Every structure is written in structure tokens, then in C-alpha cells.
Amino acid sequence: MARPPMPDPLALLDIDSLLTEEEREIQRGLADFLDARARPGVADRFERGVFDRDLARELGAFGVLGMHLTGYGCAGLGPVAYGLACLELESVDSGLRSFVSVQGSLSMFSIWRYGSEEQKREWLPRLAAGEAVGCFALTEPDAGSDPAAMRTRAVRDGSDWVLTGTKTWITNGGIADVATVWARTEDGVRGFLVPTTARGFRAVDVPAKLSLRASVTSELVLEDVRLPDTARLPHAEGLGAPLSCLNEARFGIVFGAVGAARDCLRTTLDYASTREQFGRPIAGFQLTQAKLADMAVSLGGCALLAVHLGRLKERDRLRPEQVSAGKLNNVREAIGIARECRTVLGANGVTLDYSPLRHANNLESVLTYEGTAEVHTLTIGRALTGIAAFR
């Protein structure tokens, strides 16, 4: 006898039972908000290549921006609650989760962790409310996986600093009010808060993207941008500072990838239960069920890994190589699920009427940014063998 399809494939392994009631309430509340406000029209925004700027204030009012930070208008919630928010955001679109990750885990975290008290008071409440948008400028045209090769320089001129260089693939760059810019100085890599209204600063959006289209990606050009010393992040010394910020954002990706894959599988389960061929729903064929079962098991494993890493982070026991393992595995599995879901959808799957191929395109960027699959593989390899194979 046929039964109704499982509404949430994560119920297969009862992932919900691993969460606290507060975490479940936060997840449900955000899911309802996104269903009402962000999910409608996301395919159209993807097709047109636009980001809904009004969502920043609404997400700020909901308490999502910098929700894992404390003080200065931030919610101060735990790692798993933040991860679940990333899951729900990316279930809508990776570009939306990217906006929140960059705002909270890169821009805000860099100020919260390395900024002066004055910098925190100036920027964090506005960023948490969505009244201001931040971006994080580390990657350069010739320095992606090797940020130590950056060419952007900050030179002392009296009591000021003068910044010159180019940053690329910067999420939120074209809509940002402040950019955390990392530059080489005589004393090593340092971070600077650059108002985007500063003379000599300009942002040019990357055109003709095939991925993360409902998100802003820009090139930042700094031509002799003069800043006072109060713009320097006083506690950021060396490359370890920006890398620690990236680790915060990567943690969110571990959960976010689960959200994208879950949405693909939900969409496909619904489709397979109603699409009929040869006189019966295609969900009733063994080959289709084999695909669905394999994907559900893979998705459940990704969710278990994400929650486990979140609990480690709660106890301050999460190591960088563990975050690398989570990002590498979950994004790789999510791409596989998205592609397999498209095969179940048949020709319909290549249209924007269904989400899997949109998610697959987005996940190609997620696989690359904040550490490529190759870099995370070598990070894990170094942890296992004690030998660094990067050079």
C-alpha cells in the first residue's frame, strides 16, 4: 500500500532529535520567514542576476546577521543555531546564504574579533541591523588559494595609511558600505576598514556569471586610498587573522550545503510522486527509488557531520582540519545530490521551474570559494601525515 512521501528527507535519520527545542524553534521561524519573503521569486532573481537589497534589513530585524556573535546588537546564539540558519538560507539559494555568511562571519567577525572598541561601536550595530552592508576583501586576481602572495599594499604616510591594489570575487562588494581589506605592510599582513565612499575606492560587479547569480560579486579597486590609522584593525597581525575569519564562514557552509541538497531532494520527491510514466508515478520504479534512497542516506550523513562539528564548536574543540573535512564532504555530496535530482526530473530539470540545477550551479562556486576542494583535501592530508603538500 502506498504511503505519503516523507515531507523532509532528513526525517529518515531523525536529525531533529539531535537539536534542542530552542534550535528547532529558530530553524522553524526562519524557514517560515524565508518561505514567505525570500523563496518566492528566487528563480526570477537568479535569472535576472539581481540581489534583493531590502532583505538585508529584514534579515537584520529577524536577528540573523552576526547571530553567533555577542554584544553590539548581535543575538549571541550558539554554533548549531547559526548553522541551522545557514541551512535554511541556502535551501532557498546559495547566494542568500553567501550574503549572510559574508556579513556575519567575515565582515562582522573581523571587526568583532580584531577591531578596536570604537570600530565595534561604529559598525557592528549597523551591520547587525542590516542598515549597513559589509564585505571581506582578501582574494586577488593572482592570489586565490595562496593569499600570502597578495600584492595589495598599505604604506605609511605620516599618521595615515595609503592602500593600493585590486581584490576580486568579493561577495557584497558592489553594495557594501564598509570593506575589510587585507594588505601587505612592512610589518606583515594587516586588516583595514575601508568605507566604500573613500576617495580612490571603486567596485565593479563581475558580469555574466553562471553561478551565484542572485548575489553580488565584485572586483574592488583601491587607487591610493588614504585612511587614518584608526581604520586599521589593531588586533589583526599576520595572515592568521583573515584565515581565522574564513574558518568561521566555512563552518556555515558545512550546514548550508545540507540545505541546498535537502531542497533538491524535497523538490524531487514531490515531483517523482506526481509525475506519471507508463501508467504509474515514477517514484514507484526501482531505479528511481534507488536514486532517492542513495541521496537520502548521503544527505543524512552530511547533516550528522554538520551537527557533530557544531557541537565540537560549542565546546571550543573544533579544529581547522575538521572544518575542512566538513566543507569538502558536504559540498561535494550536495553537488552530487543536485545533479542526480536533475536526472529524476528529466528535461524539466533544466528549467528554473525546479531548483536542483540552480543549486548545482551555485554549489560549483561554493566548492571553490573559501578554500577549494583541493586545498581542503591537502589540509586534511597535512593533518593525517604531518607533511604539508601545498608547496
From TrEMBL:
InterPro entries: Acyl-CoA_DH_CS (IPR006089), Acyl-CoA_Oxase/DH_mid-dom (IPR006091), Acyl-CoA_Oxase/DH_mid-dom_sf (IPR046373), AcylCo_DH-like_C (IPR036250), AcylCo_DH/oxidase_C (IPR009075), AcylCoA_DH/ox_N (IPR013786), AcylCoA_DH/ox_N_sf (IPR037069), AcylCoA_DH/oxidase_NM_dom_sf (IPR009100). Pfam families: Acyl-CoA_dh_1 (PF00441), Acyl-CoA_dh_M (PF02770), Acyl-CoA_dh_N (PF02771). Residues 20-131 form the Acyl-CoA dehydrogenase/oxidase N-terminal domain. The keyword Flavoprotein applies. Gene3D superfamilies: Acyl-CoA dehydrogenase/oxidase, N-terminal domain, Butyryl-CoA Dehydrogenase, subunit A, domain 2, Butyryl-CoA Dehydrogenase, subunit A, domain 3. Its cofactor is FAD. It is an enzyme of class 1 (oxidoreductase). Its EC number is 1.3.8.6. Residues 237-384 form the Acyl-CoA dehydrogenase/oxidase C-terminal domain. Pathway: Amino-acid metabolism; lysine degradation; Amino-acid metabolism; tryptophan metabolism. Keywords: FAD, Flavoprotein, Oxidoreductase, Transit peptide. It catalyses: glutaryl-CoA + oxidized [electron-transfer flavoprotein] + 2 H(+) = (2E)-butenoyl-CoA + reduced [electron-transfer flavoprotein] + CO2. Residues 135-225 form the Acyl-CoA oxidase/dehydrogenase middle domain. PROSITE patterns: ACYL_COA_DH_1. Belongs to the acyl-CoA dehydrogenase family. This is glutaryl-CoA dehydrogenase (ETF).
